[in-house]
Write a structure and sequence with these properties.
CATH superfamily of the largest domain in chain A: SPOUT methyltransferase, trefoil knot domain
InterPro entries (chains A, B): Alpha/beta_knot_MTases (IPR029028), PUA-like_sf (IPR015947), RsmE (IPR006700), RsmE_MTase_dom (IPR046886), RsmE_PUA-like (IPR046887), tRNA_m1G_MTases_N (IPR029026)
Oligomer: homodimer
Catalytic activity (chains A, B): uridine(1498) in 16S rRNA + S-adenosyl-L-methionine = N(3)-methyluridine(1498) in 16S rRNA + S-adenosyl-L-homocysteine + H(+)
Order of helices and strands of chain A: EEHEEEEHEHEEHEHHEHEH
Largest sheet of chain A: 7 strands, parallel
Keywords (chains A, B): Cytoplasm, Methyltransferase, rRNA processing, S-adenosyl-L-methionine, Transferase
Radius of gyration of chain A: 20 Å
Shape of chain A: elongated
Subcellular location (chains A, B): Cytoplasm
Number of domains of chain A: 2
Largest interface: A-B, 28 and 28 residues
Family (chains A, B): Belongs to the RNA methyltransferase RsmE family.
CATH topology of the largest domain in chain A: Alpha/beta knot
């Protein structure tokens, strides 16, 4: 069934009116009419299944048939990533990370960042579209572009995937998950992914002094957006398979 | 150091002449001159480090300074994937899978395939570029577009990631790797990823009758190219971390 996004915190109502853009999409593009069924999602775990009772193209009205609520995941995947020079690569990361179950994304500004501005509205649309397409019910939270210094002040622990060869890097996301699975459940353990030119040595130093753990992402050199997706998958895989198997 | 691709099986020579396109790139775009150093790779595990002895823009000549040979991986990742309707998505898959260590790719033609043609030369360029960028020394093998029937005849066992809900699907790539790690090392165990409209029921039936195992890729619904990248990451992660830890 077709899925539409409504930015309404509480979907526990009998009748819901779609916002203008989704109304147009339903009534004009897809030619949906009175009596047709659709699903509404709010990105907060609820699916409202309903039947169209009014099909005017600016305010499609839907009456509830069924409501399902899903519990949020018990773990929290937060990736703080430097926007890539090529904007498509950042957008691709957002789409893939949403499909793979990310919960929170913070774009970070580093001293080697080649892109210093992002378009939050456009990025938000990509998240909504990937959420609908992948049948997830929770919309990832997109934070504002934040300097790495401010980010480290706000998030004192986490993992950092830098590319310098260091002795402290012979651990991986999987090993850290095995050691500290509870930290990923109860608290926010962000994974930092640097820009194309990597983090500066000072940035790495500050993170490690703060209490971050450096991790390796494997043998080959990954692009920024690939590293972000790979990090996300590592956590997904852990909580969908290994963690379950253990408990 | 800058890396260039030469399609030469044996790099054990004193002097190598770059092909025209790589020569132009070195001499014209990057303005490299006599005495500058570069690395040549052939996609077969060898890095030839050399010094330019002739910088004419159509035939840059390089003299050997050093030669390093890397052994191939002991495992083999082969993904057979239906080309996506949007060609960019297939190209993204190829780039990411190369970064993540894929060894062999077969584009497959299914009954629900929306794209029935590919451009092998363009795809080959993407593989070469991703190999250079990610510092891998082995170029993945790109096979010809093959019908799924022919593919199944040629590869009697493997994994298939279809989206039908079936009882036989409560296993995953990780579980299959754990059960049959030796099969992934000695033999070719392809993972089949279907088109946007999924495999047809007949295709799934034929694969299962052939000896394929159906696998799930997790809770959320993944796009074709995300499924391909996720499958590739599963195998990479297994052989880089878990398999090592066990042996």
């Amino acid at each position: 069934m077709r899925r539409f996004f409504v930015d309404i915190g509480n979907l526990d109502q009998e009748i819901i009116t779609l916002p203008v853009d989704e109304s147009k999409h339903a009534a004009k593009v897809l030619r949906m009419r009175i009596g047709h069924q659709m699903e509404l999602v709010n990105g907060k775990g609820v699916v409202f299944t309903g039947e169209i009772t009014d099909d005017q193209p600016k305010a499609v009205e839907v009456r509830k048939v069924n409501l399902i609520e899903e519990k949020p995941d018990k773990h929290h995947i937060h990736i703080a990533i430097a926007p890539t020079k090529n904007n498509d690569r950042l957008e691709w990361f957002l789409e893939k990370a949403t499909e793979l179950g990310i919960h929170e994304i913070t774009p970070i500004l580093c001293s080697n960042s080649e892109r210093k501005k992002i378009k939050p509205e456009r990025l938000q649309k990509i998240l909504v579209s990937a959420m609908k397409q992948s049948k997830r019910l929770f919309l990832p939270k997109l934070n504002q572009l934040t300097s790495i210094d401010d980010f480290l002040d706000k998030h004192p622990i986490g993992l950092i995937a830098h590319c310098y060869e260091e002795e402290d890097k012979n651990t991986s996301i999987q090993l850290e998950l095995q050691k500290n699975a509870n930290r990923w459940q109860s608290k926010n353990t962000p994974i930092l992914i640097g820009p194309e030119g990597d983090f500066s040595l000072n940035e790495v130093k500050k993170a490690l002094e703060n209490g971050y753990q450096a991790v390796t992402l494997g043998k080959t050199r990954l692009r920024t957006e690939t590293a972000g997706v790979y990090a996300c998958m590592n956590v997904k895989l852990y909580f969908e398979e290994f963690f379950k198997a253990k408990h």
